[in-house]
Amino acid sequence: MSFFGTLVVIKACIAAAMPGWLREIIGVKNEETDAALGSVLTLSDKNLQSRQRAIGVHGNRVEAKEILRQDVYAFDQSTTSLLELVSGGLTRELLQVHVLVPGGLQQERAAQMVWRDWIGILASLIKLLEVAIYWKHEAFKLCLVSGCCWMFFLCTSVLLQAIGLSREYSERVREYEVDILAGDLPTPVKAGGCFKLLLGAPQNVRQSRLWQAAWAMGSLVSTASVLAVYMLLGSQDRKVVMEWIGFQLLWLVLRSVFYHWAEGTNRVTHNPILLKKPWKDLDPDLRARVRGLVQALSLYQMHVHPRCLYCYEEDARTISNGYAPMLEFPLSEAERRCNKSITVLISAVIGDTLLSSACFVTGSNHATLDLYDTCVVIVKIKDAEIAIPAARVVTAPAPTRVVDVETASELLTAPKGSTNLGKRYLTWWYWIPCGEDLWLEMQTTDMQILGERRAKILSGEQVTKHLASGMFYISFSEVSQIAKTVTYSRMAFKAMQTLVL
Q1: 3-state SS assignment for residue 406
Q2: Rounded to an integer, what distance in angstroms lies between the CA atom of residue 441 and that of residue 430?
Q3: CA-to-CA distance for 353 and 302, rounded, in angstroms?
Q4: Residue 431: is it exposed, middle or buried by C-beta count within 10 angstroms (0-12/13-18/19+)?
Q5: pLDDT band of 485, cuts 50, 70, 90
Q6: pLDDT tens per residue across span 271-318
Q7: Residue 76: phi, psi to the nearest 5?
Q8: Contact 376, 355 (CB under 8 A)
């Protein structure tokens, strides 16, 4: 191992040992690190959002059980090479899923790579020649310092190779799989484009905790070794210094030769077989994995939503088929005549992010902002749960004065995609159709809607008057706009149901 270029090694180790969000903040994120590790953020608990737009979502699995969801801002080279084999259509009219299965010669090819890796590790023992010469010249401290950094990385490589964590295609990591939805992903205010769906890709082992520990320790050992070596060289004989320079140049040349000869991680060398399957030909397990990717895309949209994540704390995170779909809330004749209020038990809410994600994957042609205020309310009636497409908006106190700069007139409604001042200022308002121009109108308490709620029974005319009362600062101004949004909710819910049938 040459000390020439060690600073690059130290920076790479520091970058690899850090989580993706911290890597970008301190400025050690670069193309080389992304190629080795990718750039991902965990969707379950991330607090910081990347400034970039995600290019994919992950579903990491162990023994067919999903354990982690991430949004991806850069794929590693190995995954990129796999995705290049997946055909991406120009349209999203039909849902096509690619499933990666092992090739017929995978074990033989993996064994060849293992032997080559062992040969490279054993070849590094030539470093002992340098150590022996320093010892012969009684440069004991230089001998110790020069050898410790090499010895650390030698032991680390032997350990990773022995336990099967050196490459993605070893026996140890075969049970780990990554499902990928990659492409031009949608956001709540911008439509998506073409995408690729790949199930069963190998997980990047370099994201494991053992690799991160090795990189962290490697950065410390390398830094200490560089400082110690340059401090010791000042007290060494000229002959020892010249020998040290000669060895560093030799290791630099041999390292270049090795990287030219060694098998990299950016090539698909395991002979994969990609099976292209339409949705109707997928077995239940594969369909569940596709739904997991849809759910991951929904979580990503929650994190980048102009309304902010706190508006979606009660929204359903998963796609289920345990409820009966209905177009309208079933009011009794007595309830229709009383025209007052009733108690409604709400067990779940399917929000716009999950609906729009399902539409994106199934190829439904809906404009993103058309789905901005859509939702499906799951209501419990007796022992059954019914799903009713509805409309909802977040409202907050209107600004003191909002003027359209083009017409110089005051804006009485908020455009879709507007931001807000925080959770404590907000309220969700829901409108559920009941048929015969009747609506149930509800609102949240402290942004909570689940459980028993009092809902007013209003006619369409009453809803319009309520919208015009001045208490709302939303995009709706009349009941016809709510009815149109409910139509979009029904179409989006129908698209989502195709993923559970």
Answers
A1: coil
A2: 6
A3: 7
A4: buried
A5: very high
A6: 567 788 888 888 888 888 888 889 888 988 988 888 888 899 999 988
A7: -70, 170
A8: yes
Check: CB of residue 500 under 8 Å from CB of residue 319. Answer: yes
Q: How far is CA 275 from each of CA 86, 162, 228, rounded to the nearest angstrom? A: 10, 32, 55
| Percent above pLDDT 90 for the chain | 18
Contact present, 338 and 349 (Cβ < 8 Å): no
Phi and psi angles of residue 108, each rounded to the nearest 5 degrees, phi first = -65, -40
Task: Give pLDDT tens digits for 370-390.
Answer: 899 999 999 998 888 999 999
Nearest Cα neighbor of 174 from 61, 80, 277 is 61
Q: What is the DSSP string of 284-350?
A: HHHHHHHHHHHHHHHHHHHHH-TT-GGGGTTS--S----SEE-SS----HHHHHH-SEEEEEEEEEE
- Asked whether the beta carbons of 202 and 78 are under 8 A apart, the reply is yes
Q: State the SS3 of 222-273.
A: HHHHHHHHHHHHCCCCHHHHHHHHHHHHHHHHHHHHHHHHCCCCCCCCCCCE
What distance in Å separates the CA atoms of residue 368 and residue 185, rounded to the nearest whole number? Answer: 11
Handedness of CA 235, 237, 240, 244 (dihedral sign): positive
99: CB partners within 8 A, 6+ apart: 198, 199, 200, 274, 275, 277, 286
Buried b (16+ CB within 10 A) or exposed e, 272-305: beeeebebeebeeebbebbbbbbbbbbbbbbbbb
The answer to whether 200 touches 286, Cβ cutoff 8 Å, is no
Q: Tokens in use for 176?
A: 């780990």
Whether residue 405 has pLDDT greater than 90: no
Q: Which helix (H) or strand (E) holds 495?
A: helix 479-497
pLDDT above 50 for 12: yes
**What tokens does 460 get?**
């369409």
Question: Residues 87-114: pLDDT tens digits?
Answer: 765 444 567 788 877 665 566 666 777 7
d(Cα 207, Cα 58) in Å, to the nearest integer?
13
**164 residue type, one letter:** G
How does DSSP assign 41-81, residue by residue? Answer: EETTT--S--SSPP-EEEEEEETTEEEEEEEEEE--HHHHH
On the question of pLDDT at 201 being above 70, the answer is yes
The CA distance from 434 to 442, in Å, is 13
Give the integer Cα–Cα distance in Å for 90 and 100: 22
